[in-house]
Write a structure and sequence with these properties.
Number of helices: 9
Largest sheet: 3 strands, antiparallel
Structural class: alpha+beta
Shape: elongated
Radius of gyration: 28 Å
Order of helices and strands: HEEHHHHEHHHEEH
Strand content: 5-15%
Strand order of the largest sheet: 3-5-4
Length: 267
Amino acid sequence: MPLLKPLIIASCMLAATAAYAQDSNVLTKPIATVNGVGIPESRFDFVLKQNLQQRGEKDSPEIRNSIKESLINQEIISQAAVKKGLDKTPEFRTMMDLSRGQNLVNAYLHDYVASHPVTDAEMKAEFDKIKAHMGDKEYKVRHILVKTEAEAKKIIAEIKKGAKFSKLAEKDSLDPGSKNNGGELDWAPASNFVKPFADAVTSLKKGQMTQTPVQTPFGWHVIEVEDEKPLKLPSFDQVKPQLQQRVEQEHIQKLIADLRASAKVEQ
């Protein structure tokens, strides 16, 4: 008999614990019995649905058998725990309280999302907001990161005298991700960088270098824009599922904030 498969059912079972705390009375055909106790088919159906909908699994005999075996193992271990009296401990009762609370949260949020579906207009507005934030260009950038402004000014002076940017990056830069590549970063829109760095990049033309050091939370930078090109973003239809999830999360965050604002919380 295989061990419990946490990747298959663990996340589902936390959500199902309270819902099935008393499901031995559910009049459904058991998928199996353990020491005379039936495992309701409704429990199996619930876990299967969670796997198919939330985890993106595809229905298959293998998935069904894995869930069935896991539920059998769970029942065996649960019965052993009860026999040992672990269901009477304060720790277990606290776990059940927490599980009930989380199940109620999940049920409430699921109901809210179902009754407040995201509209195409909301997703389009989010898409346009992201496009505006990303800009219309992406850049190929080199940089040299040092600790002090004085060090950065010295490097700028050396480059102006003919020193090669890439060689100085390899020798002096503190950025381990780019120094061994001559300070070169991957193609990226300016929005991928912290604001002072991004502002410097967008102010430069192809082939230009910052004439004064740029300070960010990481240190002081000397920046050179090697190249630029139009930014190609996926179409609205291509990212529609991600946009739906993003807007749903925004709805949920607003809901929680509104509920908290109207609640009387004493600490």
